[in-house]
Specification:
The protein is α+β, with helices and mostly antiparallel strands and about 200 residues long. The protein contains four helices and ten strands. It has helices at about 45-50, 100-120, 165-170, 185-195, and strands spanning about 5, 25-30, 55, 60-70, 75-85, 95-100, 125-130, 140-150, 155-160, 175-180. Strands 3-4-5-6-10-9-8-7 form an eight-stranded antiparallel sheet, sandwiched between helices. The model is unreliable at about 1-20 (pLDDT under 50).
C-alpha cells in the first residue's frame, strides 16, 4: 500500500500520491503508526528518553517520549506515544512540532488542512478552539481534527500561548504548529484511561 506523506515541505504543503482511506497511509517525516521507534532511533537514544517520559495522571500504560530533530528537518521536535515495557517500541501516535508566530502558524495550518482534505476519503473534519482547561490564562489552541471511521485521528493545531500567564512563562511555552497522527488505541487510552481511571 502506498503511503502518503504528512511532511511540512518548504511551503508546508503536502505531497499527494493517491487518495487515502486509512490513517496508516500517512507519515510524518517517514514515521507512521505501527512502526517501531527502533527504525528511527538507537536503543540507547530511546532508553534515555524513556527515563524522562511523560505519563498521564491516571495511567502509566502509555507514555510520551520526545526527540529533538537530529538534522535540519522540517520539524524541530517529534513526540510519540508508546506502551510502557514494550521492547519493540511500537508507535501509537506521532507528532511533529515547529515553533512559529501565530500568524505564520495559522497560514501554514490552513494549507496543511486543505492538503489533508484533498488526500482522504473517509474522515470527518472538525474545527474548534480549545483553552487548555483555562489553566494557562487566555492561551488558545486552534484545532482541526480529521476523524477516521476506525477511531483514529489526524490533528493539526496552532498553540497560541498567553505569555502574560505565569505558568506559560515558567514552562517557556512558545507558539507552535503541530501535526499529529493518533491510532484508535491511543485515542481510546487518552479518553478512557489517561485521565479517568
Amino acid at each position: 500500500m502506498k503511503r502518503l506523506l504528512i511532511i511540512l515541505i518548504l511551503t508546508f504543503s503536502f505531497q499527494a500520491l493517491t487518495k487515502a482511506d486509512d490513517i496508516r497511509d500517512f507519515e510524518i517525516e517517514g514515521m507512521s503508526l505501527g512502526d517501531s521507534l527502533l527504525e528511527f532511533y538507537s536503543l540507547q537514544e530511546i532508553k534515555e528518553e524513556v527515563v524522562n517520559a511523560t505519563y498521564y495522571p491516571k495511567s502509566k500504560k502509555m507514555m510520551v517520549v520526545g526527540f529533538k530533530s537530529k538534522e535540519v528537518n522540517l520539524y524541530e521536535r517529534y513526540e510519540f506515544h508508546i506502551k510502557k515495557n514494550d521492547k519493540k517500541y511500537i508507535i501509537y501516535s506521532v507528532k511533529g512540532l515547529i515553533k512559529l508566530s501565530i500568524n505564520d502558524c495559522l497560514d501554514k495550518k490552513k494549507i496543511i488542512v486543505s492538503e489533508i482534505e484533498n488526500q482522504i476519503n473517509n474522515s470527518k473534519r472538525r474545527d474548534y478552539k480549545g483553552n487548555y482547561g483555562d489553566s494557562f490564562g487566555d492561551s488558545l489552541a486552534h484545532i482541526s481534527d480529521f476523524d477516521f471511521k476506525d477511531g483514529s485521528t489526524i490533528r493539526v493545531w496552532c498553540s497560541e500561548w498567553d505569555h502574560s500567564n505565569e505558568k506559560v512563562k515558567n514552562y517557556l511555552y512558545e507558539n507552535s504548529l503541530s501535526v499529529n497522527l493518533s491510532s484508535k488505541e491511543q485515542v481510546d487510552f487518552v479518553q478512557n484511561e489517561g485521565y479517568n481511571k
